[in-house]
Amino acid sequence: MGTVVELNGSRAVVTGGASGIGAEVVAQLVAAGCRVAVLDIAEPAAGGARADERAELWLPCDIADEAAVNSAVAEAHDHLGGLDVAVLNAAVGGFGSLLDMAMAEWDRVMAVNLRGTLLSLRAVGRTLVAGGRGGSVVAVSSVSGFLADRMMGHYSVSKAAVDQLVRVAARELGPFGIRVNAVAPGTTDTPMFSATRRLPGYRERVAERAALGGIGTPAGVAQAVVALLGLDWVTGQVLAADGGVSLWSPIDPAESLQAQSSPTADTGG
After folding, report:
1. Coil, strand or helix: which one is 58?
2. 11-245 CATH
3. Quick one: CA dihedral 69, 239, 193, 151, positive or negative?
4. How far apart are CA 38 and CA 73, in angstroms?
5. Residues 6 or more apart from 103 whose CB is under 8 A from it?
6. CB-based contact 31:53 (threshold 8 Å)
7. Which of 108, 127, 200, 253 has the most crowded CB, counting CB atoms within 10 A?
8. Can you give the pLDDT at residue 269?
9. Which residues are known catalytic residues?
10. Is 212 helix (H, G, I), strand (E, B) or coil?
11. Over the stretch 215-262, which tens digit does the pLDDT of each residue have?
């Protein structure tokens, strides 16, 4: 125990692999020698991955649709000749206050982010259990699942639920040798995050508050996903891949000390 599982030759399913973090996960898994099937409601990004980075199989699938998910996972299993690992990445974002948000908007986000992740986990988990060889599943969560950001209540609640789903699944599937974990990205330069460009100064403020500085990249988050897939003595964990942005604290006394010592601070002289 405690070794890194060799991914070369593994058969993988990735949901939401058309763009962003999902597309980078696909590219890195292919580079590691995996055979990959993608489940996504969208078409691959135009001018996207090179031939050596592409999934072997592309299956149009709405992950909120139970029958569609079960059918797609079964087709992926049959095409690949089995299944070893899965990355549950498909998700949607949203913006709105709790008091004013239409319930249809709440339901839209929950249907994909929570219901869709559960349906994907169930289909993949059943397939792995039936295969009898164990396996590894990583869900893509978010630091929003443990932060309390205004105007993102439905998204935050959906991701907090995904984190707990991962923990429970890890206990239930552990006896079958199946590991279940999550990676929680912070602010990452993906199509979903591009909506923040309309918020003045938002990206700059986030970049300043990240311990490592800057905005995350899909490649950086995908590295964490692929690494976690291969750790054979880790399960039920949520790994933040956020450059340290979730470490920022609004009550940090060092900020006041830094402001006092700044050359531009008003010293009263």
Report:
1. strand
2. 3.40.50.720
3. positive
4. 10
5. none
6. yes
7. 127
8. 40
9. 155
10. coil
11. 999 999 999 999 999 999 999 999 999 999 999 988 988 877 777 776
